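User: Hi! Is it possible to get a structure for several chains at once, not just one? Here's what I have:
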Amino acid sequence: MGALWHPFSDMGAVEKNGEFVIARGEGVHVWDASGKQYLDATAGLWFANVGHGRKELAQAAADQAQTLAAYSTFGDYANPPVIELAERLAGIAPVPGSKTFLTSGGSDSVETAAKIARRYWFEQGQESKRYIIGRSKAYHGMHYAGTSLGGIQGNIEGYGTLVEDQAHVAWDDAEDLRATIERLGPENVAAFFAEPVMGAGGVYPPPEDYLMAVRKICTEHDILFVADEVVTGYGRIGGAWFASAKFGLEPDFVTTAKGLTSGYIPMGAVLVAPRVAEPFFDQDAGRWLRHGYTYSGHAVAAAVANANLDILEQENLLDEAARLEGSLASALSPLADHDLVSEVRCGTGAVAAVQLHEVAKAAPVVAKMRELGVATRAVGAGGVQFSPAFVMTDDEVGQLADITRQALDAAL
Ligand code: PMP
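Assistant: Yes, the chains can be modeled jointly so their relative placement is included. Here is the combined structure:
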């Protein structure tokens, strides 16, 4: 533990007692190494959507590992679970028939989309179209393009300029996007990135009509629209596979990860609309663009993803996420009258945040919640995050809310 480069590695209590060293998970509960049980308010980090400890997923991984763990899919080869997964994703993608580019996680998916968006315009002979536009409050992972595209100041600072030709707009203002594109010149802008529901920035649903407005602006100016659905994809937003579909949006790329495998194994996927994917097929060489990772199309990861999609379908978990939208709203909304709380944000599937007036109060509230048996985290600037597994019951959501109120009272 002492050698782990991790915020907790200096906390003596962790090493002594095993508190917060999460050792086991089952359904919506996790246990730390001291044996203490927590109700998991965040499904790991918005990923364990089918719940922890699912034997089907462990079995799918074991079976595939014994058949073929992995083989290069960089160019020449594929494997059966990857072929099945790409077919299934083409069927559920917000743009039907999307081509799937598999990665090892969300940050890889974002980098892939950023590179392919630029390359798309190069392939069209429009090499000046290089700017990529992100938003305030946005989170797009930790690699170079994604970090500098993001809008959470603490994540961006301290590196100098990571990536040239990037710009930021206010997260909720479509007119700011239009003005920025006009200032840069549409002939210089490749793509616009947006999380349909802002996640790590604090769980902000899009303002009404915002997504349709920015889609329209991108279409008018010939700019690719990248929906970063690393958090919102695979049902988290309730009642639909993707937030884009729920909001009637047709993105050019969808970046995904997390819920693809419910986090049982790292994997991400970029779903690319057919019209955008088309120029990347080199007819002469009979292959796709030269971009890929050793583990793009990892067979065990793809087998787990397929088994995870099976569970989501068979147990109607997209509907369960929609149910959680209602139960989170009715359980958490009453907290809005608490002296420490400025706002409760729900109404976007199985995600919600309780916003505190003072940013500094979030850490003690979260710590108190852990003490009382709820594992959660601070989100955005002074928010407390709720993004449970889709299998959480309404009673358990009620317990989350009760414990949140107790923790808020203790922090008064
Ligand atoms: N994009 C968004 C919207 C995310 O929320 C995240 C992770 N929280 C990422 C990208 C990066 O994903 P990963 O941590 O798997 O690299």
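The longest strand covers residues 189-194. The chain has a mean pLDDT of 93.

User: Great, thank you!
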